[in-house]
Amino acid sequence: MLVNSDSLLSMASKEGYAVPAYNINNLEWARFILEACQEDKSPVILAVTEKSISYFGGTKVIYNMVKGLVDELSITIPVVLHLDHGSSVEICKKAIDSGFTSVMMDASRKSMQDNVSDTNEVISYAANKNVSVEAEIGVLNEEEGESLENDSVTPEDAKEFVLQTGVSSLAPSVGNKHGIYKDEPKLDFELLGLICKSVKIPLVLHGASGLNDNMIKTAIFCGVAKININTDLQIVWADAVRRFLDYNKKEYDPRVIIASGEQAIKKMVHYKNNLFGSKNRAV
Ligand SMILES: [Zn+2]
After folding, report:
1. Which is the catalytic residue, given 6, 40, 84, 106?
2. pTM higher than 0.90, yes or no?
3. What are the residue ranges in the chain where pLDDT is below 70?
4. Is the dihedral of CA 58, 62, 68, 69 positive or negative?
């Protein structure tokens, strides 16, 4: 069933686990992730970036695909369809109009004042449509942007932002990065804990691929209730498909080639659901 993320994240916060948010890259990934989470009885957030929206062909295509899979596969766990890093108010509104149940308004690169006003515009649009809104403060470094230092936030800024917006979840920058960590990741857990205490809403951890299990557990302990995973799934899928093609050089059926990474994705999803503590929460 498609739901927004509000009650899922507040329940996770209260009970000390995190809901996984897996990025979907195509129909098959959506199916593999839904089936693995259904088996684990884990709530799940299917996240889609703007790049993926262009790849799929539009927000309506994605909504209809996910809704169709949930119905046809008899998925009974709570499923959130989420726009990841919406860069404008317009794309958030478009996703909401197409049936997404959660959106992230990421105006973190703008001034605090503009971030607040963009986030508020999305919140008021989402309010009577029962859609959750996530926001980001501080800027997360990208894998390509090596020269940039991460711009961490202060607990005071976070508190002020939440007071001015009433956002339902917040992704603070605390040393986390997207993509592959080139050096040992260093997360500021003390800051994460302080932010959690001062905002009193569920926190979101982006760039969680490549963090070791202890870091993930500590982040959950510090108040993280949603953890985003993209790169970890991409790596295991690509490795499995590469291996398959090395041994099956004559295979040309795209269904067989894409599905050769199915077990690798499902194994990683089971592992993360277990680690995040989301397994058996959707009973
Ligand atoms: Zn992110």
Report:
1. 84
2. yes
3. 141-151
4. positive
